[in-house]
Design brief:
With 270 residues, the chain is an alpha/beta fold. Helices cover 44% and strands 13% of the residues. The protein contains ten helices and ten strands. Strand 5 and strand 6 (179-181) form a beta hairpin.
Length: 270
Amino acid sequence: MRRALFLAGIVVAVGAAVAIVNRIVDPKDAFYSGAPLTAALESNCLLADDVVHAGSYPEFKRDLFRRRHVATVAFDSKGLTRRGVNMGFPGFGPVPLLDTMRFLARAAPKGNRLTVYVVTDLSWFNSQVRLDAFHKSFASRLGYLLSPWTLKSSLDLMRRSRTLAFKGWQRERPGGSCVVDRGSPYPAWRANGTLAGALPEVGSPPWRGFAWKRLSSVDAALGIAQAQNWLVVGLSEPRELSPQWDTYKRELSALFARHGYRWRVRRMQP
């Protein structure tokens, strides 16, 4: 019995040590830190995407909103609408839109009327497109901290650069531009929430039906904006004519109109 307890204690101690190392180094940036953003804003630098990583996009954009004190925000995953602070990011869709609207309702100064640009996309409603809700479960975080693959990445980063491993970022000037990064300066985020440079493109799967349930999240998000008396402008880039495009235009136009807002198709230039 004592032997079993002793072995169990060793396993727990090793697991705890692995988790501590992985949490301190955090090689995949699974836990958002505002320190790199602070450094970027104070130095008028770009913030490299390798500091943020996809899993922390919502936390990063919310942190940016709190610091910028703007009255205009945009939800645009492609960054074509450069108004105020862009709260959109790659993989953005109906559920992140609703989550961010709820955040804005809590975080925006009371009495300030926000102007919100919502740039929707046909791909949001393709049932074959998997849209990440960006909700991190306790189990997924724990699995990341205890993973031997995470530990390997932590040790590799510690061997390569103690600064990047323990401080988590560096400031450099590739091509004359100031960038706060963790080894890869581009693509990088501007202070207005748009992206300088391009992330690898992910091909769109073929259309397999309109995801009607996703309209509910957009409806709820617009309801929050309406209750806050915000001004909302709906936009979308044009696409080739098709039955799904016709359905998309009809439903989005009607949905925005239901809340007293206008949604229109408009070609936008970066």
